[in-house]
Amino acid sequence: MNNLPEPASVVRLPDGTYAYADQLPAPIQSGPVPQVIHQHIHQAPPDRTVQRVALGSGIGAGTVAAGVYFGPLLVGALTAIAANLALLAFLAVAMVWGVHTVIKSVGGPDGQQAAKAIGKARRARKGR
Q1: H/E element, 38
Q2: 12: which strand partners?
Q3: CA 17, CA 105: separation in Å to the nearest integer?
Q4: More confident site: 123 or 25
Q5: DSSP 26
Q6: 3-state SS class at 28
């Protein structure tokens, strides 16, 4: 029923649809395929030396997986413990300094004499 001639710039594609000839995709060139290089940039390659040594020594993969999982947890727990101990040590030093200052200033002659005795004992130890 369609008796109209097709314009020269319209092409019928193999699937039955029509497209303009100047909008067709360029034909695929059959030449050498470029090699795809996967490269880590700004990132160190994964180091699996410990896992390889562990698996080579005969322990199982489950043990290695447990080490990989619990290793960072252990580091985190030890860091938290160290931070708590540092805080406690700071508080102990501050309290000793406060007690020493209060005894020296408020204690009267007895407090000052005690502070002098402690100072003399320290100097005598350094002299040895």
Answers
A1: none
A2: 18
A3: 101
A4: 123
A5: P
A6: coil
pLDDT tens digits along 65-94 = 888 888 889 999 999 999 999 999 999 999
In this structure, which amino acid lies at residue 26? A
Q: Are 75 and 86 in contact (CB under 8 A)?
A: no
- Looking at the predicted structure, is the pLDDT value of residue 6 above 60? no
Return the DSSP state at 31: S
Separation between Cα atoms, residue 61 and residue 103, nearest integer Å: 62
Top-confidence range, 26-30, 51-55, 113-117: 113-117
- Which residues in 18-93 belong to E strands, given as ranges? 18-20
- The half-sphere exposure of 76 on its side-chain side, counting CA atoms within 13 A, is 5
Sequence-ordered list of residues with C-beta below 8 angstroms from that of 61, at least 6 positions apart, any chain = 55
Instruction: Please tell me the total number of residues recorded for the chain in this structure.
Output: 128
